[in-house]
Amino acid sequence: MRLKAAFLSVLISLSLCGCGVYKEADMQYTVAALGFEGGSTVSVYAEIITVNPESTKQETGNLLASSQGETVKEAISSLKHSLSKPLFFSHCGLICLGESLKENRIKEILDYCYENDEINHSVYFISSDNTEELLSLSSQSEMATGYDIMGVIRQAAKAECVDYNNRYYEIEAVRQGVQDIFSLPIFKVQDGSPLLNGIRIYTNCEKTVDLTNEETYSYYLLRDLTKKGSIITDGKTVKITSKDDDFEVSLDEKLHISLETEIGFKGNEEFISTVQKQSEELIKKSIYIYKTDIFGFGARIHKRNEKLWNKIGENYSEFYLNSDISFKLTGRN
Questions:
Q1: Cα separation of 326 and 283, whole Å?
Q2: Residue 25: its pLDDT value, please?
């Protein structure tokens, strides 16, 4: 927040000093967030911060600009040409992927981010069922809704003891083909404010499944993306103090995966049984409903047992759908 305030102060200071650099600031629209929707054509939405350089006060405003194109580049180009001032992307903190986007479009967006030197590779990615409505909200911080959502993500990660891994550099591996799974926080609009509403899992940049806030911790536990901290479950606070994993895999007529996890915690005694049940249900759904490894077990096998992976890697999906997976969670209170 200090950085954003400092950034606006610099813009305003430049406007007041009357120096040559002031003109550059005056001629730019600062993009706080980008959003994408579409199928055969792509729609782009830009939440823009405007600064009044002629005012002696820190007067800022926001506008939501939009455009369409056959490709992401065309949509962005059309957006730029529809505005009276150039777009300044280096302070874009958020990119929202709409539910309607298909695999090829998402890869196209990731390519655009990679090729655009102005877009910071630490930008947050989220998903929403209504990108336009979300980015058109009035900012609670009087700065930008995109920045508000960034704050919500940071607070939620602390409260839920999870690593969302939803920054661009963290999902860039998908674009490069190094991994095939990532997940993004889902945001919806409720009572005029952005609300975190679970996570959306993508496999090969294709939407696979949405999980609720209640399922989030169990999912990230299976993905080995949890951390120490406090989590609220069933209205009660649980403090996570430690976590140890034992991941084993073997192959005979089928693939056998065994994951045993011990959590050190303080608080609600029912926490362990709740997470155990949710985790078992997610594993079953991944095999019989989603029909894909949404936990990255394959990546773990590849990393830990290259000899076995050489046997199953080419047909891993088939092996996974016929696998025997066991998960055991124990708690140390």
A1: 9
A2: 46
pTM of the predicted model, to two decimals?
A: 0.85
**Which one, of 270, 96, 117, 296, lies nearest residue 208 by Cα?**
296
Contact 200, 187 (CB under 8 A): no
Distance between the two ends of the chain, CA-based, in angstroms?
A: 37
Going by their DSSP bridges, the two strands 206-211 and 193-203 should be labelled as antiparallel
Question: Which tens digits make up the pLDDT trace of 57-76?
Answer: 444 568 899 999 999 999 99
Domains along the chain with CATH numbers: 2-211 (no CATH), 229-332 (3.30.300.210)
In order, the DSSP letters of 237-263 are EEEEEEEEEEEEEEESSSEEEEEEEEE
Read off the tokens for 319. 């092996």
**CA 316 – CA 271 distance, rounded (Å):** 33
Contact between 94 and 127 under an 8 Å Cβ cutoff? The reply is no
Count, residues in the chain:
333
103-115 helix and 72-81 helix, angle to the nearest 10 degrees: 60
Whole-number Å distance between alpha carbons of 301 and 249: 7
**CA separation for the pair 244, 58 (Å, rounded):** 50
3-class SS of residue 330: strand
